[in-house]
């Protein structure tokens, strides 16, 4: 089954390299899930809680897709997210604990997280991935871009309302 997806061109990356790229994105999606859940917990806005919870669920679904593909390729999915993601979530919790959990503040934190996610997807898409893998990565990158755009739009809306 792993051979069904493996690249066949001489320029293509190895199966192990593809798994590494997918594991990097898996950590990325878990960071997104955990980050959105942290913001949903800390934000002081009934309007934003469901948005953050929905984004967290979408990230969890993306992670599940990546886990399945990594296993299909014969790899072992990484556990958890990244250290930088954990630091980011810690900062969100600190902001919540000290009362800096305004909707605008939480949206700004989410936007920072989505900027990092987009950068990782762009990096992955620069890799010569097998077609089926590229399609999944591109679809998830499009989803990350939609998340970013929604969060940025909400941030701009809350910024305008505050001014």
UniProtKB/TrEMBL annotation:
Residues 17-126 form the DUF2383 domain. It comes from the Bacteria. Pfam families: DUF2383. Residues 142-163 are annotated as: Disordered. Residues 149-163 have a biased composition (Basic and acidic residues). NCBIfam families: PA2169 family four-helix-bundle protein (TIGR02284). This is Uncharacterized protein (TIGR02284 family). It comes from Variovorax boronicumulans. The lineage of its organism: Bacteria, Pseudomonadati, Pseudomonadota, Betaproteobacteria, Burkholderiales.
């Amino acid at each position: 089954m792993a051979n069904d997806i493996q690249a066949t061109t001489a320029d293509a990356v190895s199966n192990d390299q593809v798994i590494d790229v997918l594991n990097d994105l898996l950590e990325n999606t878990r960071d997104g899930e955990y980050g959105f859940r942290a913001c949903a917990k800390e934000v002081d806005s009934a309007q934003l809680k469901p948005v953050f919870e929905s984004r967290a669920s979408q990230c969890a679904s993306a992670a599940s897709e990546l886990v399945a593909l990594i296993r299909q390729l014969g790899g072992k999915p990484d556990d958890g997210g990244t250290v930088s993601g954990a630091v980011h979530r810690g900062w969100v919790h600190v902001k919540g604990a000290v009362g800096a959990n305004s909707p605008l503040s939480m949206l700004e934190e989410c936007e920072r997280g989505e900027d990092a996610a987009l950068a990782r997807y762009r990096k992955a898409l620069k890799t010569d991935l097998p077609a089926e893998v590229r399609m999944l990565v591109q679809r998830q990158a499009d989803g990350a871009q939609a998340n970013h755009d929604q969060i940025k739009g909400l941030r701009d809306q809350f910024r305008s309302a505050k001014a």
